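User: I'm new to structure prediction. If I give you an amino acid sequence, what do you actually give back? Let's try with this one:
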Amino acid sequence: MNALTIFLGFVGPWQIAVIVILVVLLFGGKKIPELMRGLGTGIKEFKDATKEEDQEEKK
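Assistant: Good question. You get back a string of structure tokens that encode the predicted 3D arrangement of the chain. For your 59 residues, that looks like this:
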């Protein structure tokens, strides 16, 4: 089993709701879109870097 499957097995809908509420309380509603944009940018950069690495290995 991978780690995500194991993690999701222990986290139910109530736990996810509590996590979302805590994030909103900690960061506020206005800050969350900025955080998500930064997270998306980081994921995109990571994917680009892994693609470049795969292309170098093929050469």
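You can read the tokens as a compact description of the fold. Here is one thing that stands out. The radius of gyration is 17 Å.
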